[in-house]
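Why should sequence recovery work at all? Because a backbone constrains its sequence more than one might expect. Tight turns favour small or flexible residues, buried strands favour hydrophobic ones, and helices have their own preferences. The token representation captures these environments compactly. In the example below, the structure is given first.
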């Protein structure tokens, strides 16, 4: 397939591909993204560490901590780094939970979700200039209930929480 790069930004790019699949002419617009790591993190009281983050154009959204991989960064290293930056907590363990494509039809982004445990508060938040967020702690069952009634709409949070609930037979 022939790739034509349309746009290259700080965290994403846009390319148009022209070619053939099974003998048929196709044209595909694809958003390029390095991928992200997201963490379902439990503190010492088994509360889930969430962030209430401003996500333009949607406003404030309650979600699990997450961040974009740096160039050539391993997802697990990104998970440890982002958890510390966004929440001030350091995890002892980061266990893979699920990896998925949030918008498979037009987006190359892949999200690697982990379960973070053995948390210890070590610092204040280390946010980028344009990040607007605060930390929220919540009981897992309340979070699950918020997903069930549609109060949580963030895909990485929904995927991580429901996968965890199924694996632990909580749902």
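From this structural description, the recovered sequence reads:
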């Amino acid at each position: 397939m022939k790739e034509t790069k349309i746009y290259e930004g700080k965290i994403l790019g846009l390319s148009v591909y022209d070619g053939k699949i099974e003998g048929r002419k196709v044209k595909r617009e694809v958003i390029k993204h390095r991928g992200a790591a997201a963490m379902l993190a439990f503190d010492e009281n088994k509360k889930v560490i969430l962030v209430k983050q401003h996500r333009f154009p949607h406003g404030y959204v309650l979600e699990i901590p997450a961040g974009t991989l740096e160039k050539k960064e391993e997802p697990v290293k990104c998970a440890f780094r982002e958890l510390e930056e966004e929440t001030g907590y350091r995890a002892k363990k980061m266990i893979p939970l699920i990896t998925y494509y949030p918008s498979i039809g037009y987006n190359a982004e892949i999200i690697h979700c982990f379960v973070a445990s053995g948390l210890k508060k070590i610092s204040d938040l280390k946010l980028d200039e344009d990040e607007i967020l605060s930390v929220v702690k919540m009981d897992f069952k309340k979070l699950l209930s918020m997903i069930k009634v549609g109060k949580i709409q963030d895909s990485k949070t929904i995927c991580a929480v429901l996968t965890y609930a199924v694996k632990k037979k909580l749902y």
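A few observations help interpret the result. The chain has two domains: 1-33, 39-167.
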